[in-house]
Automatic annotation (TrEMBL):
Alphabetical list of InterPro entries matching this protein: EFG_III/V (IPR035647), Impact (IPR023582), Impact_N (IPR001498), Impact_N_sf (IPR036956), Impact_YigZ-like (IPR015796), Ribosomal_Su5_D2-typ_SF (IPR020568), UPF0029_Impact_C (IPR015269), UPF0029_Impact_CS (IPR020569)
PROSITE patterns (UniProt xref): UPF0029 (PS00910)
UniProt name for this protein: FIG000605: protein co-occurring with transport systems (COG1739)
NCBIfam families the record matches: IMPACT_YIGZ
UPF0029 domain: residues covered: 140-195
Species of origin: Leuconostoc gasicomitatum
Impact N-terminal domain segment(s): 19-122
Entry similarity comment: Belongs to the IMPACT family.
UniProt superkingdom: Bacteria
Length: 211
């Protein structure tokens, strides 16, 4: 799999009111079907007085597992629209539960589809998405005089500073792709007149905001 996208937080809550009905989204990262079921059960118990607790989830690097439930809403008006939003956003290992407290005004099939899909789409947008990529952990060491210049250059070139450590010098850790390492080192050597050292660490997963 070349592109792994998920929600930025581990879990997130978002809600809106539509024609007097209250729609509450609880969305979370998951690692297994058991994890998904436990999350769904937890939300259903928390909102056991709600009219419906509708869910959908996708699991696996290639979304091999897909599950959904209308939980009493008319067939095809709730679970499938939620699943389609997850798929449209290319999300992996995510469960979404939308709780509905009925407000007395019927929405009709089309209105329900829009309400459930819209709640998930707007909630995911509010939560934010990240892309998980494989990168080398590169430690850049500079003196204090050059630390601000280096930090400014990194942020202005969209490099994510993972950690900064201070002792007699400054160590800044950033994720860099393997292919970019040589050019990256040459550029910073030129920028800092050679007053910089690099330590290439292990390859690991890093998460970058999806713009």
């Amino acid at each position: 799999m070349t592109n792994y996208i998920t929600i930025a937080p581990n879990n997130f809550i978002w809600e809106q009111n539509i024609k007097k009905s209250r729609f509450i989204l609880n969305v979370a990262r998951i690692t297994s079907e058991e994890h998904a079921r436990l999350f769904i059960d937890q939300i259903s118990k928390t909102h056991d007085k709600a009219s419906h607790n509708v869910f959908a989830y996708t699991l696996g690097d290639n979304n091999q597992i897909k599950r959904y439930s209308d939980n009493g809403e008319p067939s095809g008006t709730a679970g499938i629209p939620i699943l389609e939003v997850l798929q449209k956003n290319e999300l992996h290992d995510v469960v979404a539960v939308v709780t509905r407290y009925f407000g007395g005004v019927k929405l009709g099939a089309g209105g329900l589809i829009r309400a459930y899909a819209g709640t998930v789409a707007d909630g995911i947008k509010a939560a934010g998405l990240v892309s998980r990529l494989t990168r080398l952990k590169l430690t850049i060491t500079v003196n204090y005089k050059n630390a601000d210049m280096l930090t400014y250059w990194l942020t202005s070139h969209d490099y994510q500073v993972m950690n900064t450590q201070y002792d007699t010098v400054v160590h800044i850790i950033v994720p860099v792709s393997t292919d970019n390492i040589p050019e990256f080192q040459v550029t910073l050597n030129d920028l800092l007149a050679g007053q910089v050292t690099f330590e290439i660490g292990e390859e690991t997963f890093f998460e970058f905001p999806v713009k």
